[in-house]
Design a protein that fits this description.
The complex is a heterotetramer, with two copies of chain A (about 230 residues) and two copies of chain B (about 300 residues). Chain A is of the alpha/beta class and about 230 residues long. In chain A, about 15% of the residues lie in helices and about 35% in strands. Chain A contains four helices and 15 strands. Chain A has a seven-stranded antiparallel sheet with strand order 4-3-7-1-2-6-5. A six-stranded mixed sheet of chain A has the order 10-9-8-11-12-15, sandwiched between helices. By secondary structure, chain B is an alpha/beta fold. In chain B, the strands form four sheets. An eight-stranded parallel β-barrel of chain B has the order 3-4-7-8-9-10-15-16, surrounded by six helices. A four-stranded antiparallel sheet of chain B has the order 5-6-14-11, with no helix packed on it. In chain B, strands 1-2 form a two-stranded antiparallel ribbon. In chain B, strand 9, helix 6 and strand 10 form a beta-alpha-beta unit. About 0% of the residues of chain B have low confidence. The chains are: A alpha/beta (about 230), B alpha/beta (about 300). Chains B and C meet through strand 11, strand 13, helix 7 and helix 8 of B and strand 11, strand 13, helix 7 and helix 8 of C. Chains A, D: Its cofactor is [2Fe-2S] cluster. Chains A, D: This is Dihydroorotate dehydrogenase electron transfer subunit. Chains A, D: Pfam families: DHODB_Fe-S_bind. Chains A, D: Belongs to the PyrK family.
Chain lengths: ~230, ~300, ~300, ~230
């Protein structure tokens, strides 16, 4: 059980939830959240947006029943929290690009705070949010609204590229990596439906070029070239 | 002194809480969260002779108070399992059950043989066991190759049970499908063929349609329904089977609370398995053990024998 | 222009929303809340030749996303129904379906005969009908006298279907039980025996135990499960049966939203029935008609024929 | 949809809920309440405690999931409300006794307001509540805590007796009626499990000496001597 510290509504669909929790985690890791009794049945995986010694923040987009309930939380409410789960982003040095599409920007605030030299690219379909906050953790924040954020980036300018966003965007990242024939290490963070979150159920298992991988424990962060998108 | 223990086919369980196949990996996955030796036991992910990639596309979807899965028996194959997990399973102090699946009669037979040989050798070499029981899964609804047919018709199932029984000296649990044409008849057949226990129910064949895409959500059309939604159906089936045979019964289907466990025991189950509830709360195992203990204390029940099968 | 209408066995329905037997009384009960003539149709409470008191004790209990009932076919008997409700049913402008149950083959036969004679006479005398179709319930799981057996085995069911078919010229819907040993075979039998349509599913046999009293909640041990919990199972069965026969199909089981209706139509149903959802929201009928219309507008679907059975 | 005006917690288990509603009703009638989306499945029958032209009050005891959710409602929340249902108490004149056991006191506040000459008897198992309010609508309010309120009453002193409470109490009322051989008309208000509330499902049908009756539409108020308790 964890207590809600605050739940800020950034717009009608996006919220930033802060909860009491001292379990921390690495950038790119996620928690399983449950803010309801019986419906929906399962907890929901949400990335760490930011964390301190005694609190974690989650940035979420309302897409269905579970996230709708997150949106309704008020300060003082309780929720169940398990984690941190997943491999998280690798420790990297050199020049890094962090590319978030839509709610896929969520893990990159904490990441930008930790990497020394990371440029942040944020792609929004309409109203952008949290841009000022991102500017406080990265000296280079590029925002695109309604276009394709990928077009503004050359992977070859970077040693490492990490992308998170809708599957279409991640496919485009893979294609771009191939097209640019870049030396940059390109990573993607996947979002598969999960049940257990701990590697026990194989609900999140997906095809990779080296065989099947579990997104929850082998990932969610993978080398882009290894993923087999269908 | 409250006694939670039970004995099934000569194997003694610390308590009646056993984690269900396919929801508990091979045990390791939950061992970081609590001491899994507290459990009565657990069943490993379903194994087949050959490694299996499982199904493509969506593997999981939620329904009202339930979930559907179409994992398609993804597993490393029996050989890899035995190689990779034996030492870990040997180190455990809880009942370890292998779940054996298969596409053909020959798969089942060869799989059982492999397990038998391995276990005999390991017991001889180390003086310690790694596997306590086999749970024979004739009912996985996700495998195209015919896994389902065995679970439906008594005569088809008979061949599998007989083949596996002939190949193993380990206590044999047969796991029944809710899709069986005649569940009582199926149970009686298993008893005749020398099964040591029965477990039920596996998931119920179900469907979900993505009306936007105008397609079934799952690659193979149907998928298996589990979770609280199916509990009343599972309980009825356990009660039915408990009245049809004298074999010990491990009941499951939607169990999430201690009260659910008690219901199954009262319906005639010797122990229970818990699947989907692990996903709802990953500490469900210890929570249930605590809950059942608390209930017994409160009701002045010393041993579950006092209430087992109390419902006529 | 969006067209919601459908035609089943020569009877035309304004829309595919039909209220299910046992959940809609004889229609009157909901007529104070909305104009029930807006509905595609409705099925009256199950009738038997003799009046029935139904079951004692608890008749209803909730489960996770479902409910169990053990009404036990309480009804005034066919004769009293015909006497009391005919004039009201004649006044209605929606498809009126009688649900015929029974304990013995002879009950069914005599019941069908009574309805047939009455309807012939009334049509002759007044020039207007009071009953459009018969739905034959071979599947009510609550009656001790054998009502269940008919729904399980194809051969037992055959006798009932044949007997009733011989006694009535009204379009005959046979309502299938999810407990049928072989659902596809059952459906094919009905087609052979001259049924005009099939409806499914009836409630699923289930159990609930009161652990404090150490007794089954229901007098007869088991009771019928309905509501959202069973929807994925019902949908699978409708899809299965739609692929086994060419008869029109009325699908049901857990439908509560317009999306649920669309799922059943895509699975192959010609129309749907709605039971438990009436209790969740007594305006479910008109809400669903509105919801389906809105979905069709949004998706540019002019007629449900465009999506019916679209899932292979 | 109706809006919650207030929800007063009288103790840890009992609440008094006021909602906007202009549908009114007679004493002894009930509404079906639903203050949740999907769980529990069904609405819950609750008697009218009091009503005005634009609001209704409900007095409820928390016994399970549904009433627990009623307890959690806050001003401004929405709930679904259907009714009024049931026959309600008959129109009576003469001397009337209204006997409530436990939460069975709920329908008698509104009833006492409407009857000219009604004595109110309230039986509580522990802490009493709302006694002052009852005193404002009846000149004679007798309270019993922990005992059997019935023992303090002689039915023969009244023209009409109406009782509501646990089944055990209603059985005792029936027995007392027979034992006293009184001329008073004795009524009981039954609480059967309900699904539809409108007479369609027969879930609430119970045995009466004159045959089966539906508690939701034929009742919930019946002549005591006609009920067949099992
Ligand atoms: C590792 C990981 C990290 C994530 N981090 C975030 C984050 O920081 N912020 C955020 O807003 N979202 C994040 N998501 C996506 C988020 O989990 C889903 O949007 C959410 O589960 C939807 O639940 P729902 O009940 O609102 O929607 P519904 O559509 O009602 O959910 C139905 C089912 O689909 C699953 N589901 C639906 N969409 C997704 C999805 N995109 N990914 C995984 N499962 C899904 C749900 O878990 C549920 O089982 C992450 C997903 C993963 C796997
Ligand atoms: C006509 C009528 C008027 C009522 N008036 C009031 C009132 O004014 N105040 C009040 O507190 N209670 C009243 N009740 C009882 C109230 O309906 C139940 O306490 C409530 O339904 C319990 O729901 P739950 O989810 O909290 O409990 P649960 O025990 O979780 O409910 C489980 C199931 O049992 C049913 N149930 C449980 N207890 C009862 C009961 N005593 N009567 C009917 N159904 C029950 C529920 O509807 C539900 O289906 C009335 C009941 C009836 C029939
Ligand atoms: C994700 C998942 C995977 C499963 N895999 C297997 C399996 O490999 N072998 C098997 O016999 N049963 C398998 N099952 C069925 C469960 O063991 C259990 O019989 C079923 O889920 C009902 O119990 P529950 O409602 O507690 O989950 C699986 C169930 C789930 C949810
Ligand atoms: C209270 C109740 C009474 C029922 N009575 C009958 C009946 O008399 N005859 C019948 O064929 N089906 C009866 N049914 C079954 C329904 O018609 C329907 O098949 C079933 O409830 C599944 O649909 P649902 O999930 O929409 O309720 C009854 C169901 C309920 C809940
Ligand atoms: S979510 Fe269960 S294995 Fe990944
Ligand atoms: S509650 Fe349905 S008939 Fe009374």
């Amino acid at each position: 059980m964890a207590k809600v510290i605050s739940n800020m509504h950034l717009n009608e669909k996006v919220g930033l939830l802060e909860v009491e929790c001292d379990r921390g985690g690495k950038p790119g890791q996620f928690y399983m959240l449950r803010a309801w009794d019986t419906y929906p049945l399962l907890p929901r995986p949400i990335s760490i947006f930011d964390c301190t010694d005694h609190s974690i923040r989650f940035l979420y987009l309302v897409v269905g029943e579970g996230t709708r309930r997150l949106y309704q939380l008020r300060a003082g409410d309780n929720l169940m929290l398990e984690g941190p789960f997943g491999n998280g982003f690798p420790e990297l040095s050199g020049k890094i690009a962090l590319i978030g599409g839509g709610i896929g920007i969520a893990p990159f605030y904490y990441a930008a705070k930790q990497y020394e030299n990371a440029d942040v690219y944020l792609g929004f379909s309409d109203q952008p949010y949290l841009v000022e906050e991102f500017k406080q953790v990265s000296s280079s924040v590029t925002v695109d609204v309604g276009g394709t954020i990928l077009d503004t980036i050359s992977f070859s300018d970077y040693d490492h590229v990490i992308a998170c966003g809708p599957e279409g965007m991640l496919k485009a990242v893979q294609a771009k990596q191939a097209a640019e024939q870049t030396d940059a290490n390109v990573y993607v963070s996947l979002e598969n439906k999960m049940a257990c979150g701990v590697g026990a159920c194989l609900a999140c298992s997906t095809k990779h070029k080296t065989g099947r991988k579990k997104t929850c424990t082998d990932g969610p962060v993978f080398r882009a070239e290894e993923v087999s998108f269908v | 002194m409250i006694d939670l223990s039970c004995n099934i086919a000569g194997i003694s369980f610390k308590n009646p809480i056993v984690m269900a196949s396919g929801t508990f990996g091979f045990g390791r996955e939950y061992s970081g969260f609590y001491d899994i030796n507290k459990l009565g036991g657990f069943v490993g992910k379903g194994l087949t002779l050959q490694p299996k990639e499982g199904n493509n596309g969506t593997r999981m979807a939620e329904t009202a108070a339930g979930m559907m899965n179409s994992i398609g028996l993804e597993n490393p194959g029996i050989h890899a399992f035995l190689t990779q997990e034996s030492a870990y399973w040997q180190s455990l102090d809880t009942v370890r059950i292998v779940n054996l699946g298969g596409g053909t009669l020959e798969d089942y037979r060869a799989g059982a043989e492999l397990i038998q040989e391995h276990e005999q050798r390991i017991r001889k070499d180390t003086g310690r066991s790694s596997i306590d029981m086999i749970e024979l899964n004739i009912s996985c609804p996700n495998v195209k190759e015919g896994g389902m047919a065995f679970g439906i018709q008594t005569d088809a199932a008979r061949h599998v049970v007989r083949a596996v029984r002939n190949k193993t000296s380990l206590p044999l649990i047969v796991k029944l499908s809710p899709g069986a044409e005649n569940l009582a008849e199926m149970a009686i057949m298993c008893e005749h063929e020398g099964a040591d226990a029965l477990s039920l129910i596996n998931t119920i064949s179900a469907m979900k349609i993505d009306i936007r895409k105008r397609k079934s959500v799952f690659e193979h059309g149907y998928a298996g329904l589990s979770g609280p939604a199916i509990k009343p159906i599972a309980l009825r089936m356990v009660h039915q089977v408990a009245h049809a045979v004298t074999l010990p019964i491990i009941g499951m289907g939607g169990i999430t609370t201690a009260d659910d466990v008690i219901e199954f025991i009262m319906a005639g189950a010797d122990a229970v398995q818990v699947g989907t509830a692990n996903f709802i709360n990953l500490r469900t195992g210890p929570d249930l053990i605590e809950g059942v203990t608390a209930w017994m204390e409160q009701e002045g029940v010393q041993s579950l024998d006092e209430i087992r099968g109390i419902i006529s």
